[in-house]
Amino acid sequence: MNPLQDRFNNQTYKIEVSDIRKFDERVSIIDGMLKLTLGEPDFNTPSHIKEAAIDAITANQSHYTGMAGDINLREAASIFMKKKYAVSYSPKNEVLVTVGATEAISASLLAILNPGDKILVPSPIFPGYEPLITLSQAIPVFIDTSVNGFVLTPGMIDTAMKEHGNDVKAIILNYPSNPTGVTYLREEVKALAETIKKYPIFAISDEIYSELTYDNEHVSIAEYMRDQTIIINGLSKSHAMTGWRIGFIFAPEELISQIIKVHQYLVTCASSISQKGALAALTTGIDDALPMKKEYRKRRDYLFEEFTQLGFEVARPNGAFYLFAKIPEGHLQNSMSFCIDLAEKNKLALIPGSAFGSAGEGYIRISYAASMEKLEEAVKRLRSYMTIPPKAV
């Protein structure tokens, strides 16, 4: 036994590697496995973005940028947000380039949370938030949205605030949602904003899937409550740039001035080469997401129909690239057991709903960031599995 193994920050013992990653690694060793697990676009980064990065390498633009990121990129990001979502941020002091949306979330949470603070977390939700809250010695207050089609309501916020009051420091919003694909109409966003504005709390609005909204235009909550909002966004999903690690924080200057301190000590700055590619993405490639969105919509419609016919109750996804489906009665109701059994017997890997919190138990998440050929094969394997279900446990 290493004498140092029990001398870490006590909070690290309270967190685990994401169940998404653990499950994906568990099933990846099975020969012939078809995986619809990770939330990564199956498209390649557009060529003009890659060419811009190659040009930057050739020109030796491989030095540190400023802490907040290349000013040209921040200007492009500011224009992008104004054009797409009608929200204005000064590129000089209200835009921060981060190492992906993940670091943007980390820097934001670490900047605002003190030990004992509470933060409202609608659930089910992407599992990347809770561990950071725990590391900050803050307390997540989960709001179960499964009772309302996975849509957070003003009443749910009021109820949580009435119970927890002055201890609440912030609320996390994630829409379009991972894992459900559910998003909000303009009137719903406005109603949430009017409620949140009654309280002195931050709204951390993770809008990383904003460019992948299918049936309605994405509405940023900052349009209605700019002073309290920290917008998280990035290029991983919209431009198929997961490995480039470029994210953004948009917030009022007085908030950015504090968050940038955490950002600087975490990472110094984002990759200079990636930032040059990102500049191309937000200028000549401002609408690069459109052809990908068109294809995702076709996949969504196909899977929604197929899963419904197989007896799954599916939250109608209006954004991102996920289906969140309730396991039909007569089958294994424990989502982890269901997914393991499906993987072992029919070589199809889907993510257990429990990976997204207790409100996700009994559901499975399907990523349709895969070709139609793979999705059709996945449906074939799932149909075969569902024909002769094991005894429910």
Automatic annotation (TrEMBL):
Domain Aminotransferase class I/classII large: 33-382
GO BP: amino acid metabolic process
Cofactor(s), names only, from the UniProt record: pyridoxal 5'-phosphate
Enzyme Commission numbers on file: 2.6.1.-
Enzyme class: transferase
Keywords of the record: Aminotransferase, Pyridoxal phosphate, Transferase
GO MF annotations, alphabetized: pyridoxal phosphate binding; transaminase activity
Keyword Transferase (UniProt): yes
Similarity comment text for this entry: Belongs to the class-I pyridoxal-phosphate-dependent aminotransferase family.
Protein name: Aminotransferase
